[in-house]
Amino acid sequence: xxxxxxxxxxxxxxxxxxxxxxxxxxxxxxxxxxxxxxxxxxxxxxxxxxxxxxxxxxxxxxxxxxxxxxxxxxxxxxxxxxxxxxxxxxxxxxxxxxxxxxxxxxxxxxxxxxxxxxxxxxxxxxxxxxxxxxxxxxxxxxxxxxxxxxxxxxxxxxxxxxxxxxxxxxxxxxxxxxxxxxxxxxxxxxxxxxxxxxxxxxxxxxxxxxxxxxxxxxx
Length: 219
Known about the structure:
Keywords: Membrane, Transmembrane, Transmembrane helix. This protein is α/β, with parallel strands linked by helices and about 220 residues long. The chain has helices spanning about 1-40, 70-85, 105-115, 130-140, 155-165, 185-205; strands spanning about 55-60, 65, 70, 90-95, 125, 145-150, 170-175.
């Protein structure tokens, strides 16, 4: 009985230690996420008050059936088009993932803005924007962007601003879903994504394709 009691106490101690470690890890992730979320939150401004910048950087968000921009991506593109037509930006840098030959995201983005009155001379495309981090780093190193307005949804904007400002872009942000109710749908994913963003910034990670304006095998 005594030996069994000691073993039970040891098991309980290990369980408590594991629970404490798990709680500490969750708390650490939460603190890091809050730091990234809050670091440049003051740079999110209403679209009408966006500063005049040379470039609006638009992040890809997938395609719908038929190869057209998804609803989320169309919302981003509409906001960027509005910035261009209102004279807030001179150029749209459309950054998407074309790593799959059957998923030409950037080309769909280009067609969308051209069909809505943005001239081809005001459009640049980066088809190696495989992630928010890659898009931001390549905007700076490949396309020479030093100042920009970032265009994406509010849930994503704080992470994009953190990365862009950390890699050398003087970036401000406009929420594509401005005026709409905020959703917690992406909250858990963004918590982990912000932690990853901090790690990549601190490590000065290279994007998957660090040079060239298009993927090596594209078109």
